[in-house]
């Protein structure tokens, strides 16, 4: 059974589907391994052993009656303890959230269950998810399953350690600055930070809302790329509560032959180890062997991109966590950059990307519609209203010229529907950065429900020009 716990998730699902193994046997094997290794690893903070076994037995009984198991039928999984699992603590490693128990599953957890996966428990994190290790005042430190003197990384370090050690076949982490990718790298597993919006973050704590949703997202972790792909296929899709959710299905197995891939081995400022360099070269060769066109290319403005990430991560984290972290926690080094201006960050974020687009090999630019102050613009319908189930209005036709910047889509961050213009009352969930001068006067109208209207000049004062950023 020890080898079974290190088998790929897709293989375990096949064994259960073929009747060679029951879900109850598979879950019990993983629970036995948790009992054996977790006291030293400290990877899991909550284990729902009895409930998981009961669910596995119920699934076996249903399968015997002919009920399909689902693509992850019987596969044991774990979930980062910043993601809500009904009945388990969701403390994010912070004394400020001590004892908080989730009353319902996050959307991604519900999707795992619907696919037949069995949730074994939740895993340890860095305090308030703000470190590249997984140590916190509530549950202590998680160690690497490869070397007890080292860290599995963070903030999804407990998840990475549990998967690497065979305590689960895969699971869910979250990432705003490396919190899936760093632990996956440190622990020898696979992880994916998807484009924000591909996998719903509803039920993640702290919420991936406002400007933070530009970088924060939820993603799969597992021991093989095939397992990560299977998890991604299960987790992806529209969620009408997530402001950044996109109505796109998983991409499937479309051919990438002929696609150009740019590769660089270092950023020009920080040297990498020989092993890292060799790994990048091996990956490039594998892509070339698969029929992709690989070219050496270092993107410009990398240093500016790092600075912008720092602003988004620290500044917007302060907006979301300021009240929660009032007191000693707010003085942690990870929160030290709080206070720098973020008004320009959404616009500045586009500058390095634009420069990259202009300079990348083989770049082609097609004409696109432009928007200017005072001009009207065609506007796609907003997504369906969660309350009414109907599409909300496309907004006023006046077209704004001068507005005041606000970080939310309602005046002063208010969430009262009475203070929002009628055309915004159902569309406000889209997460756009709505701008306004006064609700009695002209209002800014984005081209579509995915646009964010932001002020270009400093100070957030009236009388300054706007730019619309898709």
Could you walk me through the main structural features you see in this protein, from its secondary elements to its overall organization?
With 470 residues, the chain is of the alpha/beta class. 27% of the residues lie in helices and 10% in strands. The protein has helices spanning 9-17, 23-41, 49-64, 107-114, 157-164, 181-187, 225-235, 274-289, 302-321, 345-359; strands at residues 44-47, 76-80, 118-123, 135-136, 140-141, 170-175, 190-191, 217-222, 260-263, 293-296, 452-455, 466-469. The strands form four sheets. It has a six-stranded mixed sheet, with helices on both faces. It has a two-stranded antiparallel ribbon with strand order 4-5. Helix 2 packs antiparallel against helix 3, helix 5 runs parallel beside helix 6 (181-187) and helix 9 (302-321) packs antiparallel against helix 10. The longest helix has 20 residues, at 302-321. It is globular, with a radius of gyration of 24 Å. The termini are far apart.
């Amino acid at each position: 059974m020890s080898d079974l716990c290190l088998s790929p998730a897709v293989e375990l699902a096949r064994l259960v589907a073929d009747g060679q193994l029951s879900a109850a046997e598979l879950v019990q094997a993983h629970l036995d391994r948790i009992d054996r290794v977790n006291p030293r690893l400290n990877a899991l903070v909550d284990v729902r052993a009895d409930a998981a076994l009961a669910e596995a037995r119920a699934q076996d009984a249903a399968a015997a009656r002919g009920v399909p198991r689902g693509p992850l039928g019987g596969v044991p999984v774990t979930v980062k303890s910043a993601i809500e699992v009904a009945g388990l603590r969701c403390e994010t490693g912070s004394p400020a959230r001590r004892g908080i128990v989730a009353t319902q599953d996050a959307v991604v957890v519900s999707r795992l269950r619907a696919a037949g996966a069995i949730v074994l428990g939740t895993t340890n994190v860095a305090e308030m998810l703000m470190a590249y290790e997984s140590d916190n005042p509530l549950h202590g430190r998680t160690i690497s399953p490869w070397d007890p003197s080292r860290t599995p990384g963070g903030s999804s370090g407990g998840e990475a350690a549990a998967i690497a050690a065979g305590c689960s076949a895969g699971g869910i982490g979250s990432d705003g600055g490396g919190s899936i990718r760093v632990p996956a790298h440190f622990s020898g597993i696979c992880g994916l930070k998807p484009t924000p919006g591909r996998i719903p973050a509803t039920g993640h704590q702290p919420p991936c809302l406002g400007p933070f949703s530009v970088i924060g997202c939820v993603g799969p972790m597992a021991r093989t790329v095939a397992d990560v792909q299977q998890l991604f296929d299960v987790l992806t899709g529209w969620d009408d509560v997530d402001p950044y959710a996109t109505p796109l299905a998983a991409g499937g197995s479309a051919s990438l032959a002929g696609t150009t891939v740019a590769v660089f081995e270092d950023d020009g400022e920080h040297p990498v180890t020989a092993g890292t360099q060799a790994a990048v070269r091996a990956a490039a060769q594998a892509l070339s062997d698969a029929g992709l066109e690989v070219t050496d290319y270092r993107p410009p403005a990398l240093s500016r991109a790092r600075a912008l990430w720092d602003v988004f991560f620290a500044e917007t984290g302060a907006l979301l966590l300021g009240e929660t972290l009032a007191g000693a926690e707010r003085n942690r080094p990870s929160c030290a950059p709080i206070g720098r201006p973020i008004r320009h960050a959404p616009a500045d974020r586009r500058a390095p990307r634009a420069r990259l687009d202009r300079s990348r090999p083989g770049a082609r630019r097609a004409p696109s519609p432009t928007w200017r102050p005072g001009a009207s613009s065609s506007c796609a319908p907003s997504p369906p209203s969660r309350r009414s189930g109907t599409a909300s209005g496309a907004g006023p036709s006046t077209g704004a010229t001068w507005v005041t910047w606000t970080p939310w889509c309602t005046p002063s961050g208010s969430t009262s529907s009475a203070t929002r213009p009628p055309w915004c009352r159902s569309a406000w969930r889209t997460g756009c950065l709505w701008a306004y001068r006064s609700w009695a006067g002209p209002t800014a109208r984005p081209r579509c429900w995915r646009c964010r209207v932001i002020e270009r000049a400093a100070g957030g004062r009236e009388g300054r020009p706007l730019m619309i950023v898709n």
